[in-house]
Write a structure and sequence with these properties.
Layout lengths: L3 E6 L6 E2 L4 H7 L12 E2 L2 H20 L3 E3 L10 E2 L4 E2 L7 H4 E4 L2 E4 L15 H9 L3 E4 L32 E4 L2 E5 L6 H11 L4 E5 L12 E5 L2 E4 L17 E4 L24 E4 L2 E5 L3 H9 L3 E5 L4 H4 L7 E6 L8
Parallel strand pairs: 1-4, 8-9, 11-12, 14-15, 17-18
Antiparallel strand pairs: 1-19, 2-3, 5-6, 7-8, 10-11, 13-14, 16-17
Length: about 325
């Protein structure tokens, strides 16, 4: 968990909500009675323009800290994606954290759970090829078929993604040195955790956490602020459900979040996206400047806060952790248990 050296920052150009399908319904919009009710199409111009400017500002801030910043390649999100089993269109390249998982000298393309995101790693191919030439280990999880029987939109939250084949978003994973927290949820199944352990080998321990909380992704629920100190979401996480390897860490319980605006055309996202932050060095985070109470609490615990803004984080379902991928940090691999 050393200081950040290299990071990928996402892009919002061409971002859209994909055409309705069962994967979107079960994983992203189960509150709707049918997939046909999902609002598809591009996000409003104002959302795109402002977010693009704010991501550029984030890039400048990180570059000013001495961090090398990479950005995804442009691609057509409207283009049809098809397999022998289904057809979709694209989504966005706003959240590299969902797509790629960097662990040590290995970078992994995740077997994502939305059909519309099957080919999203293409936006990062030129970066991945460069990393491979530089000595990185680049692997891709088996591409899932994502057939209809993979999903159950009527199941209770946390059980809507079945265990027929490995499937997970990379944002279901958090790194704690040699310990890897893997959230089993609607956006990552238990078979995905088994594949990840096999891919990483004995150097790492993948902790498949079932019952931690049932929603998608883990980065608005738990944030390692520095070794030994966690930021936790009091609604999604409880003491008794924390994995054993984290129970000796000190906790900061996040206060209620300042409400963030939602555009008329938006993804489902709770106000807890406000605690979604990027740790740029142990005890130093980039966080939304509107979260005054959270900033106050963090500073009381000796955490330095760099204030930035993503105005439409809730509309686009992602803030500073989601929209970045920390590829390289200084320091050596540690075991914190």
């Amino acid at each position: 968990m050393g200081p950040l050296e290299e990071v990928i920052v996402g892009s919002v150009e061409g971002a859209r909500i994909p055409a309705p399908d069962l994967s979107m319904h079960a994983v992203g919009h189960p509150h709707l009675s049918s997939a046909d009710q999902i609002p598809s199409g591009p996000f409003p111009d104002e959302v795109i323009e402002r977010t693009a400017a704010e991501l550029d500002e984030l890039e400048r801030t990180l570059t000013g800290m001495g961090v090398r910043v990479r950005r995804p390649d442009a691609r057509d999100k409207k283009a049809v994606i098809a397999t022998p089993d289904w057809q979709s269109d694209g989504f966005y390249d706003y959240c590299p954290r969902d797509v790629l998982l960097a662990i040590g000298d290995t970078i992994i393309e995740a077997p994502m759970v939305h059909r519309s995101r099957l080919l999203e790693p293409f936006a990062y191919k030129s970066i991945l090829v460069e990393y491979l030439r530089g000595g990185a280990r680049w692997i891709s999880a088996p591409k899932p078929r994502l057939l209809d029987d993979m999903y159950d939109a009527d199941a209770p939250e946390g059980r809507r993604l079945r265990d027929h084949e490995p499937a997970f978003d990379a944002a279901n994973v958090l790194r704690f040195g040699t310990d890897i927290l893997y959230l089993v949820s609607d956006s990552g199944n238990a078979l995905g955790a088994r594949w990840l352990q096999a891919a990483l080998g004995d150097r790492y321990t993948v902790h498949a956490c079932e019952g931690l909380y049932p929603g998608i992704h883990v980065d608005s629920a738990i944030t390692p602020l520095r070794p030994g100190l966690l930021l936790l979401n009091p609604v999604q996480v409880s003491e008794k459900r924390l994995p054993a390897f984290l129970r000796d860490w000190d906790r900061v319980w996040a206060p209620p979040m300042a409400d963030l605006p939602l555009a008329d055309h938006h993804l489902p996202c709770s106000e807890w996206v406000g605690m979604n932050s990027l740790v740029v060095a142990p005890g130093k985070v980039i966080l939304d400047d509107r979260q005054h109470e959270l900033i106050r609490v963090l500073e009381q615990h000796g955490v330095e806060v760099v204030r930035q803004r993503l105005t439409h984080a809730r509309t686009l379902s992602g803030a500073f952790h989601c929209t970045t991928l920390d590829v390289r940090r200084t320091g050596t691999l540690q075991t914190y248990r």
